[in-house]
Amino acid sequence: MADGPLLSMIGIEKRFAGIPALAGASLEIRSGEVHALIGQNGAGKSTMIKVLTGYHKRDGGEVLFGGVPFEVNSPHQAQKSGISTIYQEINLVPFRSVTENICLGREARRFGMLDWSAMHAEAERLLEAFGININVRRPLMDFNTATQQMVAIARAIGFSARLVIMDEPTSSLDEGEVAMLFKVIRRLKADGVSVIFVSHKLDELYEVCDRVTIMRDGRTVRTADMDQIDKLELVSAMLGRDLSKVEGHATAFTGATREAGETVFVAQHLAAAQAVQDVSFEVRRGEIVGFAGLLGAGRTETARLVFGMDQARAGTMQVEGGPHVPQRPSDAIAAGMGFVTEDRKHEGIVPELSVAENMSLALLPSISRGGVVSESKQRELAERFIKQLGIKCSGPNQKIRDLSGGNQQKVLLARWLATDPKLLILDEPTRGIDVGAKGEIQRLIRQMADRGLAVLMISSELEEVVEGADRVFVLREGRSVAELDGDGISEERVLGAMAHGHSSETEQVRA
Amino acid sequence: MTETLSGQSPAGRFFDPLDFLARYGTVIALALLLVFNLIFTRNFATLQTLNVNLTQVCTIVIVAVGMTMVIGTGGIDLSVGSIMAISGALAPMIFLGTIVPVGNIYLWVAAAILIAVGAATLLGLFNGWLVAYFRIQPIVATLVLFIAGRGIAQVLTNGNLQVFRVPEFQWIGLGRPLGIPVQVIIMMAIVLLAAWCLRRTVFGRSILATGGNERAAELAGIPVNRVKLAVYAISGFCAGIAGLVVVAINSASDANLVGLGMELDAIAAVAVGGTLLSGGKATIIGTLLGALTIQLVRYTLLANGVPDAAALVVKAAIIVLAVWLQQQGRAR
Hints:
The complex is a heterodimer of chains A (511) and B (332). Chain A has 511 residues and is an alpha/beta fold. Chain A folds into three domains: 7-229, 3-Layer(aba) Sandwich (Rossmann fold), CATH 3.40.50.300; 244-336 and 421-511, P-loop containing nucleotide triphosphate hydrolases (Rossmann fold, 3-Layer(aba) Sandwich), CATH 3.40.50; 356-419, no CATH class. Chain A has 18 helices and 24 strands. Chain A is elongated. The model of chain A is unreliable at 504-511 (pLDDT under 50). Chain B has a single domain, classed as Orthogonal Bundle (ABC transporter involved in vitamin B12 uptake, BtuC), CATH 1.10.3470. Helices cover 72% and strands 1% of the residues of chain B. In chain B, strands 1-2 form a two-stranded antiparallel sheet. The longest helix of chain B is centred in the middle third of the chain and has 29 residues, at 105-133. In chain B, 48% of the residues are buried. At the A-B interface, helix 10, helix 11, strand 20 and helix 14 of A face helix 8 and helix 9 of B.
């Protein structure tokens, strides 16, 4: 396979229900290189990989592997043809032995019987190459995540893979384990195997990758050598910001019309699991605090701690000066909080219930008497918010599942506004919503803050954070790395903090 | 991307026969059956026919009410038949003086009813505890008592048939104040109370929210675990009462037979009634109509000379049809 690239994906197109997920994306992988594939949520990375491994059928474009057209119908076929994928959640059989997991699908046979000793020897040989000595007869689940990942990689090598795809392999590993993984990756590279490395941790990319392809909105926006592109350029390309020209107002947000009041919520040095390492921030009455950061920076995870969906391992939280140690969401609600999650379908709407019933869900105790829901109060509440938020529906009794995404989102906003909260957490409040409704929701958020509500807004859309927030905390790999305020909030500074973990201007703003 | 799929349903504005059938199918079926019988079945329009059908359907409806609530949360309760057997075995032991010699018969009958129903409720609570706090799948959790419950009832009675003539107790199965069987009054009371509960109370709303989207309900501060605990307890309570009604009618309690196969009859009534088996949408009145429909089909076939074995096949066909219609209605 001489000098040509090992893999070329050219002009790949893929639509789901008519909506393009890939619109002419390209990817080129050379032999023996480690290639980073990065992009925001929905940029098309995983669709690209699934097209490559035959999980999805492409609608257009061309795939060449080793210089010849590559057509597979399933990940299994792809594996046989030399392309192995190692997923974030390891897709092996946990209760079977390491050997079985490595040899599954290509068992050694002798006289029609499985040749166990040959297979154990093969498994040991493959793992030893990575410097791992374990009892291959033990079930896979006896070992830690990193070792399981090594087993998955060994399995890939066993299939004589020429290309190994690793989808966020480090997200559940600690530092030592990451170092071990990188050693294995370098070994693969030395053996001439190519690796596609999907990750959101920028430092890791620079440590282990040779080249990078950046995707956005289903297209390839840039491919570069790792040492030719700096972090700021990387982040800008991912978010689609051209720093040389500043665009006009892109959102419906306008500046605050009143001064922020007293502090409602304070979090100090929060930590939990891998995703949240050390996050501190505060929110005051009447202000929108924005959480900026790349995917996996720990924004949603931090919000879950505040709302009692997960428990913090370290750090303290305070609501209006009093300690806040929520064990479950109802504790956070009792403390005056609301949370519109990013997953509207699975964590927000109750599809079979009506608009009014969905709205009153968090408010049932106060619109009921002796356990009986007051129909009149519920109706009144629903009519008030339908009018106030401009919710398009046939009436309070329409089922929420029949509403559009934007109107569903408004109902969920109303659910929390009705509880008259002190702090409202919004996670990606305008994701998946059409442009018109998006602007309306942004205006509503501003209005709510102007009336004295403290808002914590997580958004992956840079302009939403920059134009919408009165104060911005930038999170990076589980740490709050920068706080920007008032005029100090600019795309440049937010991007800088996302890329480098600090921004020289930040210090000035703080001082 | 999924958002665009959840837009306004285009079929909503037009008349959709499948959707209509899914919505009102049970009522229409019931009406057709009544008309058919009025024309073809002799002596149909008599008080006796009404009483025969109502008394036969009573226990199924009582159990199915509890089942509707459980299914409303997205669960299922397979143990109701066995709990009926336990309740039906316990009560005679008390009012026959097997445990403590009988004093005032009214006192002993009252104690028998309270203890039997109380035990049934506790067993339901146990089911709920397994489901809510141990996260065991409802079908597996309630299988425990489905299997063990009948065994417990047999151990309690040493496997003996308990025969009795205690009119003070049997009133709940045989009494007829104003010509209405007491069991029908019990059934209607339970149906109306449960229907009101499901539609009007915070508890009812919590059941539907839990079944409709458990994550969302929890995030909205609904005590999901307590709701589950409660519905299984209610299901146990209903099964306990049904067990008493059955033994009161029979003047005997046989741990092998009381409530045998009841779980499936109850689930069938719930399904035909239009409650979503995956949870989140439940109707008690629908369950009542579902049970009546199944009963009337069986009666119609028997009254017109079709053997019971064939009637079972027809019953199965009706259930399949009802569930299919439901799915069609939902797919729109």
